[in-house]
Amino acid sequence: MSTITMHDVSVMGTSYVHYSFEYFLDSMARLGIRNIDLWGAEPFYCRLDYADDYAATQCLRKIRAEVEARGQRITIYTPETLGYPFNFSDPNPAMTLRTIEYFKWAFDDAHTLGCNRVFINSGSGLRNADREESFKRCVDTFRVILDLAEQADILVPLEQLQPYESNLVVSLEGVRRMLEEVGSPNLRVCVDLTAMEVQGEHLEQYFEAFGDKVEWIHYSDSHHEVVGSGEYGREKLAGYIRTLEEHDFKNGIDLEVNDSIYWEDPHSAHAETCRYLREELGLKG
Fold first, then answer.
1. pTM value?
2. Could you read off the pLDDT of 26-62 as tens digits, one per residue?
3. DSSP state letters, 122-142
4. Which of 104, 106, 188 is nearest to 148 (CA)?
5. Domain spans of the chain?
6. Which of 70, 76, 203, 204 is deepest in the core (most CB within 10 A)?
7. Does residue 45 contact residue 1 with C-beta atoms inside 8 Å?
8. Which residues are registered as beta bridge partners of 73?
9. CATH assignment of 6-280, among 1.10.10.10, 3.20.20.210, 3.20.20.150, 3.30.428.10
10. pLDDT digits (tens, 9 = 90+) for 74-110
């Protein structure tokens, strides 16, 4: 059975959207966080800013050097896709081709960053379109993207979303169907605990359904709030950790403290989360 410590905690930087990437890294260093979930969006890094592969690679090398200079590493790359100009299920073929190209770049970028995971979710189909047709288009797009992932030797954890975010993959059964229909060994599972709770599901069910296909965990309190400040309570928050340890989960947890209420002072929000993990849940390190 594994023991999860603070050295196994990654942090996604979405709530640092009003701060520089260097500030985010310094904030993590002050909190003793070694693992970085690189959010692929402004003001951190957006591939669309670069005219060619060479320019993007030069930027990514600088990013990696900044990370490693602080004794940190990038554990997963999360290119932003929940919105225009990317979508996996839009009937516009130009949108689909742009999205596929974006992920081809993302896989190359991950190698430059020194990591082998690129995050994905289903996005949403058009709400006034036939949901089944949108799901089928998403499957078709994922098959192309996952062929590229296999060629690049990249693992692609798929997160389930909340119903307000998506009408496609929002539950365990949606994840199961997507994995089965895409049929790629590189498509893995990212369990978002908030989305899981919205569906009334349990973390144990994901391990029963997917076993070692569970690759990544988005950890937070309810509504992606600071850990310890929401509705879940200590027993539930500790129970998530206990379940991971019982399944000998080696990839730790990825903190997704992600709400606009934290944009002004994201460091304090993450400092309180780290305090709770250490002092209330007993994570060492």
1. 0.97
2. 999 999 999 999 999 999 999 999 999 999 999 999 9
3. -----TTS-HHHHHHHHHHHH
4. 104
5. 6-280
6. 76
7. no
8. 35
9. 3.20.20.150
10. 999 999 998 789 999 999 999 999 999 999 999 999 9
